[in-house]
């Protein structure tokens, strides 16, 4: 059995952190988080939308498993990295900073922080139809840019990692057809 490595900070990325972490890391490894899945379940009123025209971004919701990337951060960068992540991810407190055991592709087990969806938050949504997903993503523009660009960049990174998400692929196809 693999041993649990706890020397440095590990961060789990499943959405924009995969392609734009924004912090210094010393190792980047594909990983699996059990007990949560990736879902377009967060109304974005800051990064990819506004309160008047919210976009839609990914969150970790309960159930299933999620393939993403684990980033190892040197101990001397831990404090600055956590401060950065809290500023980025906690703008409206829709995410909860949690710690989880990840299995890295090489078999190692690590404890990592991840930002999971707060199901009680007003920005949490689930069960949206394809049409509702497309409408939200199509309209979203926030301080970090257009919502379709976020979805496309995430989908591209997922494809590089061999992660298939039929719902996201269908959404990308619809965005392409709409010229977005």
What does this structure look like?
The chain is an alpha+beta fold and 180 residues long. It has a single domain (4-177), classed as Gamma-glutamyl cyclotransferase-like (Hypothetical upf0131 protein ytfp, Roll). Helix content is 29%, strand content 37%. It has 5 helices and 8 strands; from the N terminus they run E-E-H-E-E-H-E-E-H-E-E-H-H. It has helices at 16-19, 78-89, 130-139, 147-160, 166-177; strands at residues 4-5, 9-13, 27-44, 55-73, 95-104, 109-117, 141-142, 145-146. The strands form 2 sheets. Strands 1-6-5-3-4-2 form a 6-stranded mixed sheet, with helices on both faces. Strands 7-8 form a two-stranded antiparallel sheet. Helix 3 (130-139) crosses helix 5 (166-177) and helix 4 (147-160) packs across helix 5. The radius of gyration is 16 Å and the shape is globular. 36% of the residues are buried. Mean pLDDT is 95; it is low at 1-5.
- Give the overall pLDDT as a whole number: 95
At the first level of CATH, what is the class? Answer: Alpha Beta
The sequence of SSEs as H and E is: EEHEEHEEHEEHH
* Computed CA radius of gyration, to the nearest angstrom: 16 Å
Euclidean distance between termini CA atoms: 47 Å
CATH topology: Hypothetical upf0131 protein ytfp
Percent helix = 25-40%
The CATH architecture can be given as: Roll
Read across the widest sheet, the strand sequence of neighbours is 1-6-5-3-4-2
Q: Superfamily at the CATH H level?
A: Gamma-glutamyl cyclotransferase-like
Bin the strand percentage.
Answer: 35-45%
**Secondary structure tally: strands:** 8
């Amino acid at each position: 059995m693999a041993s649990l490595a706890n020397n440095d900070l590990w961060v789990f990325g499943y959405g924009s952190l995969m392609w734009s972490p924004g912090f210094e890391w010393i190792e980047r490894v594909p990983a699996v988080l059990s007990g949560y899945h990736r879902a377009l379940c967060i109304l974005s009123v800051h990064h990819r939308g506004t309160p008047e025209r919210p976009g839609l971004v990914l969150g970790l919701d309960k159930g299933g498993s999620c393939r993403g990337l684990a980033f190892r951060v040197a101990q001397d960068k831990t404090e600055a990295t956590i401060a950065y992540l809290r500023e980025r991810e906690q703008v409206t407190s829709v995410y909860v900073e949690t710690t989880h055991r990840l299995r890295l592709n090489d078999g190692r087990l690590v404890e990592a922080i991840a930002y999971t969806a707060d199901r009680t938050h007003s920005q949490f949504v689930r069960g949206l139809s394809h049409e509702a997903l497309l409408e939200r993503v199509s309209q979203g523009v926030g301080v970090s840019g257009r919502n379709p660009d976020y979805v496309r960049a995430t989908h591209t990174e997922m494809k590089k990692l061999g992660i298939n998400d039929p719902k996201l692929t269908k959404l990308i196809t619809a965005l392409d057809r709409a010229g977005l």
